Amino acid sequence: MKRLYTEELAIGYANRLVVQNLNLTIMEEKITALVGSNGSGKSTILKAIARMIKPEQGKVFLDGKSIHEQPTKQVAKQLAILPQNPVAPDGLTVAELVGYGRFPYHKGFGSLTKEDKQQVEWAIHVTGMEQFSDRPVDQLSGGQRQRAWIAMALAQETKILFLDEPTTYLDMAHQLEVLQLLQQLNREEKRTIVMVVHDLNHATRYAEHMVAIKQGAIISEGTPQTVMNKEVLREVFGIEADIIADPRTGVPLCIPHGLTASH
């Protein structure tokens, strides 16, 4: 049975539909990259599937039931989302932030249990943040901050993790740091990861499944080899590009060299 999928999803803002008739199945235990130009609707789709916004029509199904009809805490035990540019309260330490990931397992505002603390310690360890656990989040570098937020999402103990442009505003080293961590979580923990990605070459290197989106519609989906071709790049991004094989992995890489005539 498909675990997470949409049926005829329509999503809108201020009486304007951004996405219509979306049918998308999330590949279980894979990394999926949603790609498209600015304003294509990819972040909107991510938020709707992760239950952050309610669709105008259609449904998102999680384990056979409509996700918007399930209790919030029940959904929060199944999936976690890291939005774009999250901000922690001033002075909040990494350990405190990661502890917030345990909220689906609490009634009211009780203190962390022994099991909670073990899960928090594990999340901090697996993201390589032990030496920063007592440091305020607002004193960390961009890459460290992003790892702290990922640790909080991991502390939720979900098998599905959504990330909206997790490498935005990070330098190249920190981008690789975050992407390699996500790849490690997918391979070692079998986490299903769905992320909105701007850099096409990051998408082909780290995702096994790609979904190319234009004006809220899926233009192409499949392996990087399927999606990364000149025709899709012309239609979705309005660019002319050469496609070469990565000498290390063989995945397709995009080298743009011009705009299409219609762009």
TrEMBL record:
Q: Subcellular location, in the record's words?
A: Cell membrane
Q: Which domain of life is it from?
A: Bacteria
Pfam family membership, one: ABC_tran
Q: Enumerate the UniProt keywords alphabetically.
A: ATP-binding, Cell membrane, Ion transport, Iron, Iron transport, Membrane, Nucleotide-binding, Transport
How this chain sits in the membrane, per its record, is: Peripheral membrane protein
**What InterPro entries does the entry give?**
AAA+_ATPase, ABC_transporter-like_ATP-bd, ABC_transporter-like_CS, P-loop_NTPase, Siderophore_ABC-ATPase
Instruction: Please identify the protein, giving its name as recorded.
Output: ABC transporter ATP-binding protein
UniProt source species: Paenibacillus yanchengensis
The upper taxonomy is: Bacteria, Bacillati, Bacillota, Bacilli, Bacillales
